[in-house]
Design brief:
Membrane topology: Multi-pass membrane protein
InterPro entries: ABC_transp_permease (IPR001851)
Keywords: Cell membrane, Membrane, Transmembrane, Transmembrane helix
Order of helices and strands: HHHHHHHEEHHHHHHH
Protein name: ABC transporter permease
Number of domains: 1
Number of helices: 14
Shape: globular
CATH class: Mainly Alpha
Number of strands: 2
Largest sheet: 2 strands, antiparallel
CATH architecture: Orthogonal Bundle
Distance between the termini: 27 Å
Organism: Actinomadura meridiana
């Protein structure tokens, strides 16, 4: 699930080949050089080291199948937000509203299911449809304001963050709503092949959108806009329309995440998702997606989601204060951004 390769400019054409007088060493150097420069490789090694370290420190608790399944299930919802955020950031945008959209979608889904009985399969499916469509509507609004209103994404999505959270508070009176018990005991707890259904849904979405980003025209246009919007327009890409679709996708995934969160935790969690947007952004950036646009992969985002998830889980098991998890994730985020800037400067020179 990699970004489409781009032609190498003459300026850095020799960057991937290590000069050496030895026979064949330049070829080997080029191979290892390209491997070493892949962001996914480095963050993958970090994730592997964390898993190995916590497994050694507490093999009975951390490495148990029960704990690992819970870890993956907890990360599944954030993964949906991060996949949508990956698309947005690749276009050189940002979306601060996903946490608010998640909450608002969960609230509207709950009210819909309550109004339709909340006991039938049809009611639960209707709730899911409402959640997804509500998220899509917020995302399209974001995209329209960014693309056609020419308002900076930071301002637009900060505004819709407040609007969606405020709307959820108005609808609930500031009190968490309980999900229908059938949803919580069904989708929230059911498993297939020993793995929670929520995880399977997140995996399916990740695979599909990873293929779309890496292999389809929609993905190529997403990269083109983030790399050079003017050139993309000159090449015939309908930039404004595409941006609406990208933000709409991010909103749709936030709506789906809201419904799955409702199923897993059993409540709307009106005040529990205030930092979801920052966690999603951190996961995407740690995964190698550039805040400057045009660079990023779904594979990297998946790894970026699990690094803070593993840290939090491991620290809890070891009895380390949770504040340290925030400190470590913050440090990793700064290091990832610094590495991105360094790579950009090296490429430009």
């Amino acid at each position: 699930m990699r970004a489409p390769s781009r032609p190498t400019s003459p300026k850095n054409a020799g960057a991937d080949v290590v000069e050496s007088s030895g026979s064949g060493s330049s070829v080997l150097g080029g191979v290892f050089g390209r491997l070493a420069s892949a962001q996914e490789v480095w963050i993958g090694l970090v994730l592997a080291a964390l898993l190995a370290g916590f497994s050694i420190l507490d093999p009975d608790s951390f490495a148990s199948s029960f704990n690992l399944l819970n870890l993956v299930a907890d990360a599944a919802i954030l993964l949906l937000l991060a996949i949508g955020m990956t698309y947005v950031i690749i276009t050189a945008g940002i979306d601060l509203s996903v946490g608010g959209i998640l909450v608002f979608s969960g609230v509207t889904a709950t009210k819909t299911m309550e109004a339709t009985g909340a006991t039938s399969t049809g009611s639960l499916l209707l709730g899911a449809l409402v959640a997804v469509l509500t998220g899509l509507a917020w995302g399209v609004l974001n995209g329209a304001l960014v693309a056609y209103g020419k308002i900076p994404p930071l301002i637009v999505t900060l505004g819709t963050l407040g609007m969606s959270l405020g709307g959820a508070l108005l609808l609930t009176g500031g009190v968490d709503m309980r999900a229908p018990s059938r949803l919580n005991l069904g989708l929230g707890l059911d498993k297939f092949a020993g793995v929670p259904l929520i995880v399977w849904i997140a995996v399916a979405v990740t695979i599909v959108l990873g293929i779309v980003l890496a292999q389809c025209r929609f993905g190529r246009h997403t990269y083109a806009i983030g790399s050079n919007e003017k050139a993309a327009r000159n090449s015939g890409v309908q930039v404004n329309r595409h941006l609406v679709k990208v933000y709409g996708l991010a909103g749709l995934l936030a709506g789906l995440a809201g419904y799955l969160s409702l199923a897993k935790y059993g409540i709307t969690g009106v005040s529990a998702h205030s930092t979801d947007n920052l966690q999603a952004i951190a996961a995407v950036v740690i995964g190698g997606t550039s805040l400057f646009g045009g660079v990023g992969t779904v594979t990297g985002t998946v790894i970026g989601v699990f690094i803070p998830a593993v840290l939090q889980n491991g620290f809890q098991i070891l009895g380390v204060k949770p504040f340290w998890q925030q400190v470590v994730v913050g440090a990793v985020l700064i290091a990832a951004v610094y590495l991105d800037q360094w790579r950009r400067k090296a490429r430009d020179h």
